[in-house]
Write a structure and sequence with these properties.
globular, 26% helix, nine-stranded antiparallel β-sheet, 5 helices, alpha+beta, 9 strands
């Protein structure tokens, strides 16, 4: 599964996709996932979508697994609230390398209905909260400098043409 990703939107237009940087297990992960919100806050996003895999985030953050796992999660949020979407799956083993690495594919199970205000794991909740916190940076281009700083810290940032620098 992909690393946690945030997709900020401004007036319905996608700003881009920002993936969490490579992380270490523990506190580093909690902070790095929450920091995904920096670009959204700098862009003054009015909506964000975050996606993550239950087991991956729980393991990396040393948190208990909540809900079904494995599960791809997506939250759509505004400053007024959020709606959690869960997409559970089983892992189908495709192959195993001589070194023991497994190649798996998702076998999607029926998705439960969306959960308005559904419980979010702490780093995702923090990213949602920070995404709508006014971002004050004493710089002529706070959005541009935030993107550059995030990239320098190892985050993968892909902006749409409308927001590219």
């Amino acid at each position: 599964m992909p690393r946690p990703v945030i997709m900020p939107l401004v007036r319905g237009e996608l700003v881009g996709l920002i993936w969490v940087r490579p992380i270490k297990v523990g506190e580093d992960t909690l902070n790095r996932i929450a920091e995904l919100a920096n670009v959204a806050a700098a862009a003054r996003a009015d909506e964000v979508v975050l996606a993550w895999e239950t087991h991956d985030v729980a393991t990396a953050c040393e948190l208990p697994v909540v809900g079904s796992a494995p599960c791809l999660n997506m939250v759509r949020a505004t400053a007024a609230g959020h709606e959690l979407h869960r997409f559970p799956y089983d892992e189908e083993l495709l192959a195993r390398s001589p070194e023991g690495w497994a190649s798996v594919a998702p076998d999607w199970r029926p998705a439960p209905p969306p959960q308005p205000g559904g419980e979010l794991v702490p780093p995702i909740q923090a990213a949602v909260n920070f995404a709508f916190t006014p971002f004050e940076l004493n710089h002529p281009d706070p959005f541009g400098v935030t993107v550059v700083l995030m990239e320098e810290q190892g985050y993968s940032v892909r902006l749409t043409e409308a927001f590219a620098r």
